[in-house]
Every structure is written in C-alpha cells, then in structure tokens.
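Hi V.,

You were right to ask for the full record rather than a summary. Here it is.
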Amino acid sequence: MHKHFLIFVAFCLCLNYWSFAQFKNEFKISYNKLRNYIAEWQIHQLADSGAIIVRLPSKQKLIQILTNNQQNQQVEWIKKQRDYENAIIIKAFLTKYQFSPVYFTYDYLSLEIIKGKVKNVFLNESLQIDSTIYLKQKYYLFADIQSPIIESTLPIVPDSLAPKVSETGSSIKTAAILIKNKYGHQLKRPFPYYVSGTNILKYEKYVSKLNRNFLKFYQKTNRPQYIPELKPYLY
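Predicted structure:
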C-alpha cells in the first residue's frame, strides 16, 4: 500500500513538472501569447496604480533654428500656435479622460522623466512648469501627440535591453494619440495603443475614444496570473 502511494505521488510530481515545462515552453515559442499577457498586464497596471504622461509638442528645435536666424516674428507666431493647440489638448484630457491619472510635459522633458526625475518637469493648465505637480505613480505610459504609427521592427525585449535599443520601421499613418512605454517604444496589440486623427479641433473626440478603448479592453480581459518567468517583460 505504502509502495503504491509513493508511486502515485511520484507520478503526480512528474505530471506537474511536465505540465509546467510545457506551459513555460509554450510562452517561449508563442509570440502572440506573450504579447497578449503583456498587454493585459499593462492595462491592469495602468488602471490599478499607473498614469498617462501626455508629451505635448514643444517645437523646440524649430524655434531654436528660427531664433538663431533672428526670425523673431516667426518664433512668436509658432509659440502662439503651439500654445493654442496644446491648451486644446490639455482641456480634452482633463475633461474626457478618466481611466487613470494624467500628467502633461513637453516632449523634450521626457528624457528627464525616464531618468527618474519626478518634479519640475510637469506642466499646469497654463503650460507652465509647476513645481507642485510631481509624479506619484511608479508605473506610467507616454501619450504622444500627432505621432507617426510605425510598422515596428522591434520585437518584445526584456527590461534590461529596452533602454539600449531603438525602435525603427516604416510609417503607416499619423496618430492623434500614440501610447508608448517608458522607453518610448509604441505598445503592441492587443493593447489599444493609438487613436487616429489629425484635426486639432477634434481632440475631445479623440481622447474620449482613447478612454473608451482602454475601458473596453480592461473590462474584457482578466487580470493575468503572475508568472515569474515573464517578469523581465513587465515594465
């Protein structure tokens, strides 16, 4: 009887090991399952304790070139137009986006955020850097404005490699809002990572659609079961 019991226990252990090994190997060879797992983790992480950081166009390079050429009148016009459009975008997010906390910064300041700076890099509604606004969340995604969607050549890479690689690919179309991870890589399907559009006057519509897409994806996905082997890909 005791011998039969030991044989049964050994069989169960072997069966569990075989099942786990098969599951682990399945994730190793299945790009789609890994991609789905990451997307589900990202949307739940954003909903639970994350934030969106909207990277507003600064037109800094163009302004610098015109300033160097002493085209001051043109500089003032560009700044006025930039501020007008960015004010519309801020209002759209503040009134139409409820899925997570939202912050605003200029595109050229995002590198400081990636390096870990959480204060004196965020803008208030008047488009001024505000020292009272600081990033409270550890997890965040960038929302780029009027950004090209690319057919990315970048595969899924672990956190240790992500800062060292650049994303390249041919442009497909322009997104009104394009969601990227903290290293500036656009997210992958099935995450609803973009909303198409080019009309600045329709940003409330674009932001509303982004919010609906996030909520819909969140509601139809289960919180993924934590798998230690996939931790390097969760960032």
